[in-house]
Amino acid sequence: MTAMAKARIGVLGAGLMGHGIAQIFALHGHDVVVYDPAQGALDTLKARVAANLRDLGEDERAAERVTPSSTIEGAARDADFVVEAALENLEVKQGLFAEVEKHARADAVLASNTSVIPITAIMKHVADGSRALGTHWWNPPYLVPLVEVISAERTSQRAIDWTMKLHTSIGKTPVHVKKDAPGFVGNRLQHALWREAISLVEHGICDAETVDIVVKASFGRRLAVLGPLENADLVGTDLTLAIHQTVLPSIDSRPGPSPYLKTLVDHGKLGFKSGEGFRKWSPEEQAALRLKVLHHLKAARDSGA
Ligand SMILES: NC(=O)c1ccc[n+]([C@@H]2O[C@H](COP(=O)([O-])OP(=O)(O)OC[C@H]3O[C@@H](n4cnc5c(N)ncnc54)[C@H](O)[C@@H]3O)[C@@H](O)[C@H]2O)c1
Predict the structure, then answer these.
(1) Confidence at residue 5, expressed as pLDDT on a 0 to 100 scale
(2) Closest C-alpha to ligand 1, atom 21
(3) Pairing mode, if any, of strands 146-151 and 8-12?
């Protein structure tokens, strides 16, 4: 774990997350080598990073610090920090880290950007587990500040401290997740909400559009500045207890995915990619929603929220 003024970063996977993660490290002066088995992803890597930088009004020359590599060795050799952003598949990730260990320096920190897979499982075969951890970024990596830094069973505090510092130094908001639970913190919270959102529709309490209006026009407005536990303190833990006594018994607590969700998938209603999921989406509506989210995230970044 060397000084981080100018670190060498290896990224595995040049997709949506990998190229955005590479971009942030490069923008902050680090040299980044990105591996992907798909030549097309490598061929377009620098152009995608440059286009994002241009769009954000940032220095496009940072893309020059991003180097594509068709081998894992190219990304892992000499790196201070290797972050994996490949497919969300346990075996693929385990295989990648086995290969990384053959080439990486003994003091390199190894991280996975998995969305929900426990880091302990991903790093199971890594010989020195003390340097292996999770760094869970959010999409798009150059606009959403959070990075969850996750301790797996064998992770050392030293590796966590170093990784927290590294991500602070590139302008991210790292938080330490002390125990390795599937989905970490953010996705557990997010999907607890989605489970109830689906359940409300499944049980005919309201339609999908209404669920989304309720969230966006009420507590969603506050969420960026008022977390749920700040909110509980604000209204009082006694009131929170009283509310929970009434409402929790009827909130969905089934351990598996909703049958309603399964039916949608079985019928090919896959959301944007098929034009219909919980609701119907024309190509124009899809483009408009994507743009709206992007504008919102940019405005939040520009306001320093
Ligand atoms: N998309 C999100 O919102 C998001 C957010 C946080 C975390 N993640 C996680 O980040 C990871 C990457 O997601 P993404 O959205 O960038 O996916 P993506 O499909 O956009 O990119 C994945 C990339 O991995 C490459 N790849 C395939 N096999 C590989 C291998 N063996 N080694 C290296 N690269 C390989 C693919 O060619 C592709 O370029 C996943 O684990 C995902 O769960 C995604």
Answers:
(1) 77
(2) 15
(3) unpaired
CA distances from 251 to 185, 213, 259 (A): 20, 19, 16
* pLDDT for the residue numbered 305: 64
pLDDT, residue 1, reads: 64
Assess whether 115 carries a catalytic annotation: yes
Nearest partner of 18 among 300, 44, 28, judged by Cα: 44
Residue of the CA atom closest to atom 33 of ligand 1:
13
d(CA 183, CA 210): 27
* 68 Cβ neighbours under 8 A, 6+ residues apart: 14, 33, 34, 36, 42, 43, 45, 46
Q: Which of 52, 101, 148, 258 is catalytic?
A: 148
Sign, CA dihedral 160-122-42-71, equals positive
Laid out side by side, the sheet with 109-112 consists of 66-69, 31-35, 8-12, 81-84, 109-112, 132-137, 146-151, 173-177
Choice among 52, 187, 199, 258 that is catalytic:
187
The percent of residues in the chain predicted with pLDDT above 90, rounded, is 96
Residue entry with tokens 């610090």: 65
Query: With 60 as the cut, is the pLDDT of residue 3 above it?
Result: no
Backbone angles phi, psi at 28, to 5 degrees: -100, 20
Which pLDDT belongs to residue 153?
97
**Confidence (pLDDT) at 281:** 98
Give helix 259-266 / helix 186-202 axis angle, nearest 10°.
80
Q: Are the C-beta atoms of 200 and 211 separated by less than 8 Å?
A: yes
| Amino acid letter for position 96 | L
Instruction: List residues bridging with 146 in a β-sheet.
Output: 173
